[in-house]
Design goal:
Helix content is about 55%, strand content about 15%. It is of the alpha+beta class. Helix 1 packs across helix 11 and helix 2 crosses helix 11. It is elongated and about 90 Å long.
Length: about 375
């Protein structure tokens, strides 16, 4: 009898138990795939420039504004190379539930600092720079709302009103940009800071944060320390950190629920793995009489051990890979929803390899040790078990 036939007969003899076991493994690896992809995407670096870009914000809290004059002060610091600034605009499209990630930027310097991250046509770039009412929209956001280049869109912002008291801001889409890598979020839109600053009725000449890159040969962290030291005696003191740290803190104000979800899913995953492991080990112990019969028929210990371990590995790896495949499909369908928190979320080769290795470890722990205990037992003792 070959291994495949033995596994098929064994599965048929206890089909309900095996089906429930395989279902548990599938669910466990669906969670494993989603969790791993989420953490990898959330913690990934968007581009090579991420490591050198530093964000300077108000020391009290990054939601507190800084005077625009701080940007001009930063330009005086020797270690600072390229720099730009931005401010949060926000707002929503048509309905409050359609909230927008909209940022007001200084176009020339912003596109220079982030030029490598954004794929944008020359015509779209020129159109954006030449018109203060123009905006740049990320591909993900444009697809979500069905926007196209040249469209006029109205953004409502209850938090920021124009000088005439209106909350309606009308813009023209000058271009739609794509990210240079899958990890770069394109669920944003960019407006002209000067358009916002000249039209709003409060917080004039304030910005949200300053983005800097060090001169060649300068350390980003040393540059950040120099910036904060420069503003130490100012009324509006600053704190400077890496862009990655700032982005995660920024997302956290919207995404604490994501952290809670991760913790719940992690607990569920660990529980499922423990259940799967104990169930597999118990099923091996319960088949002691079958092992005794095989040994009585002339099967060697090595052959019996091989049959049991092969069955466990087959069920675990087939179920686990099926679970990862389901995770791939779920992530593809939910990629747009996760765009602002975990752009480019996907099951990578590294995650798949880690999954397969964990399947091998799970099958080994759950079957090899119990199987060794059973096959090394006396044949007569095994046959007397009910």
């Amino acid at each position: 009898m070959n291994s495949a036939k033995f596994i098929a007969l064994n599965f048929k003899s206890a089909w309900l138990r095996n089906l429930l076991l395989m279902s548990s493994i599938v669910i466990a690896y669906v969670l494993f795939g989603i969790l791993s992809a989420f953490q990898q995407s959330y913690g990934a670096t968007s581009s090579d420039d991420d490591a050198s870009r530093m964000i300077t914000a108000n020391k009290i809290n990054f939601t507190q504004p800084l005077p625009l004059s701080h940007f001009h002060e930063v330009q005086k610091i020797p270690a600072v190379g390229e720099q730009t600034y931005a401010a949060w605009f926000g707002g929503y499209y048509q309905e409050p539930r359609n909230s927008l990630h909209a940022i007001a930027v200084e176009p020339q310097s912003y596109l220079k600092v982030y030029g490598k991250d954004l794929h944008l046509s020359d015509s779209a770039r020129k159109s954006f720079l030449d018109d203060r009412s123009a905006i740049l929209v990320g591909k993900s956001m444009a697809e979500q709302y069905g926007w196209h280049v040249g469209d006029q869109i109205s953004i409502l912002n209850k938090r920021i009103s124009r000088a005439d008291g209106a909350h309606n801001w009308v813009f023209r889409i000058a271009g739609i940009f794509e990210g240079a890598t899958a990890q770069i979020d394109t669920s944003f839109l960019y407006i002209h800071y000067r358009r916002l600053n000249e039209a709003r009725d409060q917080n004039v000449d304030t910005i949200g944060w300053i983005v800097t890159k060090p001169e060649v040969g300068e350390s980003p962290s040393a540059m950040g320390q120099a910036i904060d030291q420069h503003f130490k005696s100012f009324t509006d003191r600053t704190t400077t950190e890496s862009e990655r740290s700032f982005s995660q803190a920024f997302v956290a104000q919207f995404g604490d629920l994501a952290l809670v979800t991760l913790l719940v899913l992690a607990a569920a995953l660990m529980s499922l793995i423990m259940i799967v492991g104990s169930t597999t080990a118990l099923s091996v112990q319960q088949r002691a009489r079958e092992v005794g019969i095989l040994k009585a028929l002339g099967f060697t210990r090595q052959q019996v051990l091989q049959l049991i371990v092969t069955e466990s590995f087959s069920l675990t790896i087939i179920s686990g890979c099926f679970g990862l495949a389901i995770a791939v499909g779920l992530l593809e369908s939910m990629a747009e929803s996760f765009a602002s928190i975990a752009p480019g979320i996907a099951i990578t080769a590294e995650i798949f390899v880690a999954g397969v290795l964990s399947m091998i470890a799970l099958a080994s722990l759950a079957s090899v040790i119990p199987a060794l205990k059973v096959v090394n037992a006396d044949t007569a003792t095994l046959l007397r078990r009910s």
